[in-house]
Each structure stands twice: as C-alpha cells, then as structure tokens.
Amino acid sequence: MIGFIGIGIMGSRMAGRLLAAGKTLVVNNRTKEKADPLIEKGAKWAASPRSVGEQADIVFTMLASPRAVDAVAYGEEGLLNGLKSGSLWIDSSTINPAHSIKLAKDAAEKGVRFLDAPVAGSAAPAEKGELIFFVGGSEQDVEKARPLFDIMGKDVQHKGPNGQGAAMKLVNNLMLGQTVAAFSEAVAFGESLGLDKEALIQSLLGGPTAAPILHFKQHKILDEDFEKADFKVTSIYKDMELAAEEAYAHDFALPISSTVKSLYGLLKQKGMGEYDFASLYKFLKK
C-alpha cells in the first residue's frame, strides 16, 4: 500500500495520479475535507500520520514548509512512530537540505529509508503527470520508487545523497521567482510605454529570453487572473527565504534573489499571499 500525506494543490493531484494508475492508497491531511475527493475514488482515510505509516510500505509527504513536515513526522501520532523498519519515506516538500539530511538520519535510526524528492512543476503538470523529480538518497531507493515517480512525472533526476534533491529544488525555485519577476516587470514597463499587452507578451515569448514557465504564466498576466493560484506568493516567498537561509549557512551572497524575495514579501504584506505569484505584475503595473 502507498501512503500520501499532504493533500493540497500539488499533493491532491499527485495522489490522484497514483490512484488513477490503480495503486492502493491511504491518505492523511490536516483537514479531511481536502482528501474527500480522493476517498470518494477509493483512497482509504487514515486518522493520523502514524496510522499512514503503520499501513503503507512507501509513504509520500507533500507539505507546505519545514515546520509542517516536522508536525507530521514527530510526536506520538507522527509518521516516524508508525513507519515499519524497511519502509520508504519520500518527502516531496520543498525544505532546506540540512533539514532533509536530519529527517533522513532520524528515519535511519528507525530502520526507515528516506528520499528527498521535491518536484519542479505546478498544478497543471501535476495533473498531467509531467512533474520533474529532484531526488537525494541512495540509488537503490531511487530505483524502488521510480515506477511511482514515473506515474506522477516525466523525469527523475538523481542528484546525489540525501539533501541534494532539496538543494536542487531551492536553486530551481530561486531562478523561478526571478524569472517570473523579470517578466512581470518587463510587461508592466512595456505597457507604460504604450505597447499593447498581448502583442508585447507574444514578442517577448517569441524571443531568445523566454523561459518555458513564461509560456505557462502568460495567461495569468493577460487575463489578470491571479486569485486562482497555481503557485502562491506565500510559497515562492517561503522557498526563496529557505534559499537565503541556506546561502547564509554556506557564506554565499544572493544579491539579485534578495531583492526579488523582498518584492514577493511586499505582496504578502499587502494581503496577496494567497494569489498566484505572477500577481507581481499587478503590483508593478503603473
């Protein structure tokens, strides 16, 4: 049986892919209502993370923050108290590498194997099974999990030992935050010069500077539809803050990222934390 804890924007879609592929699934979430659509399709509900661990041989966690991962992992009803020796815990949350290494160590003390396997991609790729997994851990454990990764994603990149998957995710999202911010600023600037927004965006997307994510985000900016978030301001701000903390620990400066992170921080401060992070365009628009 496969366990899945964290049925949010991403987790619900990832778990849904596993269920649609015929996997037997036991799920847990802080609020049961979010898991109800999966339960209606055949997933089994578990009252606690510990209960998930007691029933499953492989457990995925997809949670919002390091604090949320700890809340699930530790304590009397925590996942680590339920996981059986020899089982595999795969954490797809975006957390800092040092935290992943600690989780792996604590899991190993209970005879549990651990992979940090955060993903690149938002709600739509998760729905289609087109995520990219950045994985840290042993090659043997990666191969055991690969058939499940292949159901949910299009690529599995083994980056090295525990912590390296988490490290790659922070690097990826640091660039993601900067890319969408640069695009938002460029479009807002072009409009201030009198350029037509749709034509402006098409010119930018047809040029050499357009990253694939911008083709996906263009519709958010064209329609100014930010309240239905594919990836929230709070999430990109948290991820860039984790990158900043990790950079500090390694005595590395992130001058560009620090400025961009502050912009997302301002959005959050202005009550836009639940909006899609492309809403930075709205903030910058004249």
From TrEMBL:
Query: What keywords were assigned to this record?
Result: NAD, Oxidoreductase
- Catalytic residues in the record: K169
Q: Which domain of life is it from?
A: Bacteria
Q: Does the keyword Chloroplast apply?
A: no
- The answer on whether this UniProt entry bears the keyword Protein transport reads no
InterPro entries linked: 6-PGluconate_DH-like_C_sf (IPR008927), 6PGD_dom2 (IPR013328), 6PGDH_NADP-bd (IPR006115), HIBADH-like_NADP-bd (IPR029154), HIBADH-related (IPR015815), NAD(P)-bd_dom_sf (IPR036291)
Gene Ontology molecular-function annotations: NAD binding; NADP binding; oxidoreductase activity
Name all 3-hydroxyisobutyrate dehydrogenase-like NAD-binding domain ranges.
163-283
Q: Which family, according to the similarity comment?
A: Belongs to the HIBADH-related family.
Q: What is this protein called?
A: 3-hydroxyisobutyrate dehydrogenase
Upper taxonomic lineage? Bacteria, Bacillati, Bacillota, Bacilli, Bacillales
